[in-house]
Amino acid sequence: MCQNFELARQRFATRTPRAVVVGLDQASRAELEFLTWLRRQRRMPVLVSVPPEAERIVRQSSGTGTDIAVRTAAFDRQHCAHIAAWLRERLRDALLNSGGPPAPRQDDESAVSIRRSSSVQRVEATARTQSGCSPVICIGISTGGPDSLEFVFGRLPADVPPIVIVQHMPRAYTAPLAERLNRISAVQVAEAQDGQELHRGQAWIAPGDRHVRLVRHGARVITELDDSPPVDRHRPSVNVLFESAALAVGSAAIALIMTGMGDDGVRGMLALRHAGAVTLAQDADSSAVFGMPQRAILAGAAEYVVSLADIPQRLLDAARARALPLTAAEEPTR
What we know:
Elements: H1 2-14, E1 20-23, H2 29-38, E2 46-50, H3 55-61, E3 66-70, H4 77-96, H5 109-115, H6 118-126, E4 136-141, H7 145-153, E5 163-167, H8 171-184, E6 188-191, E7 202-205, E8 211-217, E9 220-226, H9 238-248, E10 253-257, H10 266-274, E11 278-282, H11 292-298, E12 304-306, H12 311-322
Parallel strand pairs: 1-2, 2-3, 4-5, 4-10, 5-7, 6-7, 10-11, 11-12
Antiparallel strand pairs: 8-9
């Protein structure tokens, strides 16, 4: 094993891979030292495949940008299929960002094309500034997401407005991610269900192979799941969630794009900003991969740029600014 790690170090000296899969037999000192060395290299997606008994210590030792897949058998067929799906998505996104993210320019072509997108114009034309709607937080995130979400959710109070999340990852991983966040957070976190009404203190993560949309029914906002084709190569798609939020809750939405490759969510965030929503993007220094956030900034979709450390408080501040006055029935008793 140590010889394999030394070979990996030698290859890193001459080339930088698009993504890395590391299979660990146990959480030995040599393996943990290699993970520490690996996360110091140029930022890239890393998937660590571990047996159940090594999960806890590997999570403590791995850094932001590291995804962890727990295997029940040593690289059985199903586990290998999950790894292949993860690699395909990360490599596809890496190719879209080959050479690193583009330098900021006022005439950035991707930003201009997104601004002129006909679908954005259609959503903006339909989106209404909603009255009588409580705040809803929508988050789009990809590479580096699990650890970043854990940081945020560990600092949110139990009465936070409802949260809906699109995290790019294969189907088998979204339910365990929800369970992991539920364990460390005061917020109730679960995988999204079809027809689920949103309530304060709850968060819903889109299943790894289904789109999630928000739909308004009077004062109620519910989730809708569907199996329609991928949008911008993704299912679930951040654009699908954000565009539906622009239509359903408009200015009551609080949208956040966090670490990840590609540009998913930019078009939907533009629609949300024009509908009067609060729009935020994670900054470069705290992002494992500054792809999705940077595209949102360049396109003018993100009104605010915030560090990971500040995200929990900024979400709460935005929610308070969007909160509706309490009715008599909701006034706290003395």
